[in-house]
């Protein structure tokens, strides 16, 4: 067994205060960092928001791995296991899942403004003039005005009837196209 002399560690330039290992700048910095992290982590004021249960998730895809070929069955299984309200991460997007009709009715009546906004998507902001279209506008006076104008001007009974011939013509074109493709597939 060899015993090595560690005189180079006890030089006064490394340990300016008293020469002990506890007073080295590295150890003091490390202790200060650990104390700060521990203080911030454990003494942080908790918010009053109590999140619903969250099934185990993977780092990048979140809970997408738990959705099978039939998502309605997977969501039913998850709701039986975690309750009628749960939080899912679909990719990086947190999604609140409510599977009880009574709770959905209560949310629709009492919390409608809080749940009526759509997520802000960067691509929509860039391509659609700052999310000013009917499908991406944030909830407010502007979105209500757009929807009211759309229903009264574009989807009125008179307008819908005026485009009836266009719809019938498009349906006829698609029927012909499908007949041609099915005839080709039968002859192969």
From TrEMBL:
Pfam families: p450. SUPFAM superfamilies: Cytochrome P450. Keywords: Iron, Membrane, Metal-binding, Transmembrane, Transmembrane helix. The chain crosses the membrane at residues 14-40. The keyword Iron applies. InterPro entries: Cyt_P450, Cyt_P450_E_grp-I, Cyt_P450_sf. The keyword Iron applies. Belongs to the cytochrome P450 family. This is Cytochrome P450.
